[in-house]
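Batch 3, record 17
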Amino acid sequence: MDFIARSIWQINKNGLVYMARRLKEFNIGSGQLPLLMLLYNNKDGLNQEEISQLLSIDKGATAKAVFKLLDEGYIERKDDPIDNRMHRIYLTKKANKKKDKLLKIAKEWQEILLNEFQKNDKTHMLESLKKMKDNSMDYK
Amino acid sequence: MDFIARSIWQINKNGLVYMARRLKEFNIGSGQLPLLMLLYNNKDGLNQEEISQLLSIDKGATAKAVFKLLDEGYIERKDDPIDNRMHRIYLTKKANKKKDKLLKIAKEWQEILLNEFQKNDKTHMLESLKKMKDNSMDYK
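Prediction for the assembled complex:
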């Protein structure tokens, strides 16, 4: 019997290797890419708690990604205009300048994975994976 | 844009959480399950190099899984009958006794992931994931 979990594990592992290699010149790792993608996707101005929720990662992992991206100058933290004990995260000019290149890397991996899939199959795969992800979320 | 890599990462992460919880009573972790599954799948008597290749994991990860399973009494190492510098890995009685329960856990996760998939869609998903895995293997 072939287990889905095994394929998923392998694809994930190979993806991390691919990303590590491609992101090296940007001085970031695969752990920071989802946060950047989230911010690029019109979510500038989130606080860390919102980021944790949207990325389904714990506070520690969020803090780590935020710290690395701050350190590399991709994001900046500003006080919340209403509650100044809270900080909000914004993309820097540097991040916006790299946006197209980073999106391209993410898309290229997608294209590698979907190589030789028919167009209908691609759409179906995206939907099915989302369903599988939703099914798995009770166990996070 | 929804990235496949993100769903894959999330499903994998949730799967590791699920497995860690379910495997606790067996004193093994998710890192050892693929090796056990391989041996259960009529592959008793492999050496570590063959295991590395079949599981697509490096020698270090194989050694770690072998060590843990030896330590917990699930496998034993015997000298190769021809080349006694080489060891081969065999399931113990304990492992065979636990086989059905462990297979059940792996199958249950599969069923959780494929919840509400039509039968045709299940087959299609297994094939598509295998194709995606193969596509990703140039980057391992």
